[in-house]
Amino acid sequence: LQLAVARPELDPKIVEHALEQLEQTCFYLIRSGSYYAYSNEPNLNKIIVQYEEAIEKTAISEELERRINQLYGRSGYFDSRLFKNTPDGVPDNAEKPKLVVMHFKDCTTSRNRKPPAEVDSIFKQKGTQKVPRIFVNNLLFLISDLDQREAMETKAREFLALKRLCNDFESGDSDLNLSDSQKRQIKNRRKETELY
After folding, report:
1. For a tag on the chain, would you pick the N or C end, based on fewer CB atoms within 10 A?
2. What is the pTM of this model?
3. CA-CA distances (angstroms) from residue 147 to 24, 109, 116, 153?
4. What whole-number distance in Å separates Cα of residue 29 and Cα of residue 92?
């Protein structure tokens, strides 16, 4: 296939990447060695998509919150403040710098935009009376990128689906007849989808 599309101006890595993407998304495309073919039976992608469709949005949010907590919740250098989107949730003192992780559903930003109102409010004010903050240089904000939020949720959905699929075939609860190589592929894809 690569030989058929080879051109001096075309990087072979682009073709290789396109083939990898096809393998990940097509339901009836199979790879046998260096050859590709279509099968009349669905491949693993179809099974994974069915599992992804069964994942609820609340489970995705909980998984993302769990991972954010695991990554940023216990920092040795920072005093982490997770999902505190109001000034009263972030103390104003000269102790450890405050890492304020804004909730990805409530507060987002994108390139060339002003900081969200919640960030501006926390940066300028403290407490429930909203008096001016003194130690503004002791704050660091972590805000989700609006352009990347959907990709983050898609990765979490895929991880949860693969985790459920692995649990099903390991416990014998599934009526799927998966070969050992398919089980290995699923386990490898699960490891790849872990965000950290």
Report:
1. C
2. 0.77
3. 22, 8, 15, 12
4. 57
